[in-house]
Amino acid sequence: MKVGLLAYHSACNFGATLQLLSTYMYLKNHHHQPVVINWIPDDLEELYRATTPAPQYQLQQKLRQHIWEETALCRTTDDVATAISNDGIEAVIIGSDAVAQHHPWLEGLVFPCKTMIGFRHYTSDTLFPNPFWADWLTKLRKPIPVAMMSAANQDSAFRLIPRKTRMAMRENMSRFSYVSVRDEWTQQMFCHITKGSCNPPVTPDPVFAFNQNGATLLPSKGDIMRRYSLPDDYILISFHPAVVQSAKAAEAMQHWMDELAALAGNIGWATVSLPFSQCNCFGRCSLAIQHPLSPIDWYALIKYSKGYVGNNMHPIVVSLHNSNPFYSFDNYGTPHLNGLYVDDSTSKIKHLLTAAGYETHCTACASRHFPMPSPATVMESLQKFDSGQCQLFADRQLQRYNQMMDDIMQTICP
To answer: How far apart are CA 135 and CA 180, in angstroms?
Structure first.
């Protein structure tokens, strides 16, 4: 069966690439013919080019030519419908990732700011309607089944969505053959906009199945050690520069990192800075991974490490999947008063770690003033990490993932 995949395939983002690649390899391993629907709106492409270092951007574009098949370039909803028809795509899976976003204009207001009141700009992929909401379905000559898989709304303030927009979203969702979400906040959104008629299950991120689906793509530990000149025992540090908002904070954070490096060195672990896809890690470590970096090597670097300390969700997903120690500085949530207060109930990291039973391996850092754990506390979390408990969680996630994929394929296969 020829299955179209619609997600953030062009994102200069390690996690986004791995999510889609995991789904692509699952379908390929099960003798289907996956093809990535090459939808890249102009404003999103412009954003990627403007915010990603040129070597990293070029590597990610080149990598796409080797790891999956894509349709012709699509800029609009009509283009997507044409590509689906021309390529003979028989069903579409949307996701996983933040493919269920809509940010009403009230959510975009920023107060206070330099101009007293500002407005946050959103790209077209984050505003309904767009192809992630299958607005191309009515343009096909004949309908095809569509599944939305482990979708997320990226902290969307869905209770502010106007009634008319909710009605249109509800109509689009009624055409889906299957819907699941990645977190409880997105689940609440779908219940809200459909008046309870759609209460989708919370299902795993596809990266929780990467060892199963993409094992043939992974380099060996020896290869990673050799190519990146790493010792056998190392921990990865990855703090986004945006978390450090002043010169004083930067000095304090570097001092914190130096203390952590000293504690790690006492037991023979090196500290290695791991970049984000769009910028380098804040601060100095004894060793550093540089751009350009492939998402597959990024995954392997975390998999083979002694632990991960830093921001973002997918490093935590990779760590949990491989039963690796971690300490998360959770940079998700809904900010209020320009970051003075953050509602972390919308955080996908908090949802994930609560489900896994690792709440103590995390601190919320999205607000301007967050409680910084001591380096000793973080090192103790890494050293006393319960890998057995984590393996049980990872096994459950893989089982739930495979059940989800069975359900999707039974739904979309004729």
So the answer is: 18
How many other CB atoms are found less than 10 A from the CB of residue 374?
A: 12
Distance CA 341, CA 366 (A): 9
CB of 187 closer than 8 Å to CB of 153: no
pLDDT at 115: 47
Say which DSSP state 70 is in.
Answer: B
CA 191 to chain centre: 22
The 10s digit of each residue's pLDDT in 37-52 is: 999 999 999 999 999 9
List C-alpha distances in Å: 322 to 207, 287, 326, 330, 388.
Answer: 11, 23, 11, 20, 11
> Whose CA is closest to 217, among 406, 28, 7, 8?
28
- Kindly give the pairing relationship between strand 234-238 and strand 270-273: parallel
- Per-residue model confidence as pLDDT tens digits over 136-147: 999 999 999 999
Rounded average pLDDT over 163-172: 96
59/294 Cα distance (integer angstroms): 7
What length is written for the chain? 414
